[in-house]
Design brief:
70 residues; mainly alpha; 70% helix
Length: 70
């Protein structure tokens, strides 16, 4: 999972570099939106078809895990 986020942010930075210099601000925003959507789909798509017991490995524990509040 960390690798996916690393490549997502690295790819976003590299892909948006030409937009900063050569394109208009609207082009920059459009490209950023496409990159963000592609990254979200890339990260979320593999987990959508997983069974619940396998999905638990990818999800962080609840905030109060280990805390007996009541």
């Amino acid at each position: 999972m960390k690798t996916a986020f690393f490549w997502f942010f690295l790819g976003g930075a590299l892909a948006m570099t030409p937009a900063i210099y050569f394109w208009s601000f609207q082009g920059y925003l459009f490209f950023f939106t496409l990159e963000l959507l592609a990254g979200l789909i890339w990260v979320m798509k593999p987990t959508a078809a997983m069974p619940e017991d396998q999905l638990v490995k990818y999800l962080p524990p609840p905030i109060d895990a280990g805390i007996q509040a009541w």
